[in-house]
Every structure is written in structure tokens, then in C-alpha cells.
Write a structure and sequence with these properties.
By secondary structure, the protein is an alpha+beta fold. It has one helix and ten strands.
């Protein structure tokens, strides 16, 4: 497991295996909807990452899975996706000796609000509107 620092949003774990190098760091760029994996590739190798859907994903507007955009040192590369379940997606990425940065770009990374927080916000707004309407009706 690698503990990823998501800034003010806390941390989350990414399970991974790597052959041919080591993982130096993983960071979130929430403006670009990406997870950046910094590696030290001492040889040709492969990294497999188990990406938790709660924190990073690639989805179409209808909610179905979309492909991630994977860049190694700013060059788009193909990848394999092996395990897809309701909690995570597992991607396998080949890299070459000397590669240093893998960017995994999705449609969201570390969502600003969880589903529960959004529901509480909606209920709060509805309650405020209902109370305001009742006060206006009483005054008239």
C-alpha cells in the first residue's frame, strides 16, 4: 500500500506492485483530475495499481466506466485493465528504464463531496427553503 496525500481532503491508500523500479511518491493533482506516480525505473518493468473508485475514476456521463488517459513522462501510452469491481479498477502499465513520472488522468480524483455530504447539503437547502416559505406565508 502507498498512502497518498490528498491535501485538505486527507489521505487514501493505493495498492500496487512494481517490477523493474521503485515508487518514490504518489500525489494528487485535483485540478487535472489525475494521480501522479513518481517512479525510479532502473530497468524495463511493469506497475500494477489498484485504484479505489471512491478517490479516482474515469466515467462517462451515464455513469459507465470510461478509459483512463495514461501518460509516462508526458507521452500517452496504452495500458491493460484487469480487475474491475464496484470498489476499484486495476490497471497495469509497462514502463522503460529511465521513466520517472506516470500520470493517470480520469474524470474525477478525490471528489470534493461524498454522496452522503451531497445528500445532507440538498436536505439542508430544502429545509431552509421550506422554513423560509412558511415564514413568508405567516406574515401575509
Amino acid at each position: 500500500n502507498f498512502e497518498v496525500d490528498a491535501g485538505s481532503k486527507g489521505t487514501f491508500d493505493v495498492k500496487y506492485t512494481i517490477r523493474g523500479g521503485t515508487v518514490k511518491n504518489m500525489i494528487v493533482d485535483s485540478e487535472m483530475f489525475e494521480l501522479i506516480v513518481q517512479i525510479d525505473a532502473i530497468d524495463e518493468g511493469v506497475i500494477t495499481l489498484d485504484l479505489p473508485r471512491e478517490f479516482i475514476g474515469a466515467e462517462k456521463q451515464d455513469g459507465k466506466d470510461d478509459t483512463f488517459i495514461i501518460l509516462i513522462d508526458s507521452i500517452e501510452i496504452p495500458y491493460q485493465e484487469s480487475i474491475i469491481d464496484k470498489d476499484s479498477r486495476t490497471v497495469t502499465i509497462d514502463f522503460e528504464q529511465g521513466d520517472s513520472e506516470i500520470e493517470i488522468i480520469g474524470t474525477y480524483v478525490v471528489p470534493e463531496f461524498s454522496t452522503v455530504a451531497v445528500m445532507i447539503l440538498i436536505l439542508g437547502i430544502m429545509a431552509t427553503v421550506a422554513m423560509t416559505r412558511n415564514k413568508i406565508q405567516i406574515k401575509i
